[in-house]
Design brief:
- There is one protein chain.
- The protein is mainly alpha-helical.
- The chain is about 40% helix and about 10% strand.
- A 3-stranded antiparallel β-sheet has the order 1-3-2, with helices on one face.
- The longest helix is centred in the first third of the chain and has 13 residues, at about 25-40.
- The radius of gyration is 20 Å and the shape is elongated.
- It starts with about 25 loop residues before the first helix and ends with a strand.
């Protein structure tokens, strides 16, 4: 976007973007934010960009700088399901027999994993920030 040099000032009163725009942000600032958003396209954050910014980062540029440190767990709806998947895949406790897995409390294990880690649960995925 470009403004004529003879423009004294402008204000943004309405916008649609997955990041915050202050009403007096410069066009250069908005372009930097949009460039950061474009860098995020290689990640599968989808509509959760705003939630990720609100949870761990100051703005979209900081999210873009740290995106490679975020692990996305798709297809799980809560921490208990994430814990169960981790146990069954051997990521936690190694290979356990099915007879032992049947006795595990995945709700409690999921809470412990969440307490020990840095997780964000959204409607579409669970994110882990490994900072």
């Amino acid at each position: 976007m470009e403004l004529k040099n003879d423009s004294e000032e402008y204000a943004i009163h309405d916008y649609e973007a997955p990041f915050e725009i202050d009403r007096f942000d410069s066009i250069d600032e908005i372009n930097r934010k949009y460039a950061a958003l474009e860098r995020l396209e290689e990640y599968d954050f989808g509509a959760d960009v705003s939630a990720l910014i609100g949870e761990w980062f100051r703005d979209i540029e900081e999210l873009a700088e740290n995106a490679e440190d975020i692990v996305i767990y798709k297809g799980v709806s809560d921490m208990a399901e994430l814990a169960q998947d981790a146990v069954e895949s051997g990521a936690i406790f190694g290979d356990l027999p099915d007879q032992v897995i049947a006795y595990l409390d995945f709700e409690a294990l999921g809470r412990d994993i969440e307490i020990e880690g840095n997780y964000l649960v959204t409607n579409s995925a669970i994110y882990e920030y490994a900072n």
